[in-house]
Automatic annotation (TrEMBL):
InterPro entries for the chain: HAD-like_sf, HAD_sf, LIPIN, LNS2, LNS2/PITP
Pfam families: LNS2
Biological source species: Micromonas commoda (strain RCC299 / NOUM17 / CCMP2709) (Picoplanktonic green alga)
Biased composition (Low complexity): 42-52
Gene Ontology molecular functions: phosphatidate phosphatase activity
Ranges for domain LNS2/PITP: 121-277
Name of the featured protein: Lipin protein family
Region of interest called Disordered, as start-end residue ranges on this chain: 25-72
């Protein structure tokens, strides 16, 4: 066996006694082992190659370089790409899918909403506004407990029935989008399921969202930036934000930043008491009380509004609402005019 390994590995000749006898009639002799060629001899016998210069063809002409394609990351789509989506008025489901050797086909769904250019939007915070507290409300929902403000689903549904669009805004990280959307979809009170709308979350990692919310306590930085981006989608002469509901001073600042009137910038405390920025120290309401005044605070929006071409506008004129027109102050009367 060692002789055979040496013959295979190093080409040493096999002993005569080791060579087996050829079968009768085979003729010839045992095939000789081919001689091993040194690397120097092999290189000398190779055909000479034609030298080629990088960036040129064999005939010497330069090879044209392909321009490098540059891509820019963006979270917005231009109008042409939006038109290719084929969105329908209202809620649309968009699916992002990819394949992996380990996990197979994966799919993530998102919702895209198509609204009119003159839509009226009511913004609502989630943590502490729909729930009674920022943390306990979601922990209670995970274990099947109801820790939501009583009557919030009915109020938001009545606002929707009057022609307004609901939008939910939270400074949570984007990784919580699925859980937040599932929580809002399953919220039911007295047989009424909460109306659905866009759920706007921070496009940041969880660590960044927690740092902004817990450490520096400035969630309004994301909320103001998000609301400004949505405001830019509408015409410059139309402010879509009609009212806002929050539970902190930062929510009030965020809504006021995009032009929500102080009389419709509402804050809900843990006792389910509601007050506007103008009645903070004078008047508080309950959710049931606001629900009774829903038609006065949120007048029904006419279905047929003015188009950009200038058709008739039957939309409620907010300047002549009771809270704005009759509450301007007292009339100045000179003493000489009194009898």
């Amino acid at each position: 066996m060692p002789h055979l390994l040496g013959h295979v590995a190093f080409g040493t000749p096999l002993p005569t006694s080791y060579l087996p006898s050829l079968p009768p009639g085979a003729g010839g002799a045992w095939p000789a082992t081919p001689a091993r060629t040194s690397p120097e001899d092999a290189a000398a016998t190779r055909a000479p190659r034609t030298p080629r210069v990088s960036g040129s063809r064999a005939n010497g002409s330069p090879v044209p370089r392909r321009p490098k394609r540059k891509f820019r990351k963006s979270v917005t789509l231009d109008p042409d790409k939006v038109a290719q989506l084929g969105l329908k008025p209202g809620k649309n489901v968009i699916a992002f899918s990819f394949s992996s050797r380990v996990w197979g086909r994966q799919e993530v769904q998102a919702h895209a909403y198509l609204w009119d250019w003159n839509a009226k939007i009511v913004v609502s915070d989630v943590d502490g506004t729909i729930t009674k507290s920022d943390l306990r409300g979601h922990v209670a929902a995970m274990v099947g407990k109801d820790w939501n403000h009583e009557g919030v689903a009915q109020l938001y549904n009545n606002i929707r029935d009057n022609g307004y669009q609901l939008m939910f805004l939270s400074s949570r990280a984007i990784s919580h989008s699925k859980g937040t959307r599932r929580y809002l979809e399953k919220l039911t009170q007295d047989g009424e399921t909460l109306t659905q709308g866009p759920v706007m979350l921070a496009p940041d990692p969880l660590s960044t969202a927690l740092y902004r919310e817990v450490v520096v306590r400035r969630p309004q930085e994301f909320k103001m930036r998000c609301l400004r981006t949505i405001r830019e989608l509408f015409p410059a002469d139309w402010n879509p934000f009609y009212a806002g509901f929050g539970n902190r001073e930062t929510d009030t600042v965020s809504y006021a930043h995009v032009g929500v009137p102080a009389g419709r910038n509402f804050t809900i405390n843990p006792k389910s008491e509601v007050y506007a920025a103008t009645t903070r120290h004078t008047k508080t309401y309950s959710l049931a009380g606001i629900n009774e005044l829903c038609d006065e605070m949120f007048p029904p929006v006419a279905r047929h509004r003015r188009t950009r071409s200038g058709a008739a506008d039957l939309t409620h004129c907010d300047a002549f609402a009771d809270s704005n027109y009759w509450g301007k102050g007292f009339m100045n009367i000179d003493d000489s005019e009194l009898p």
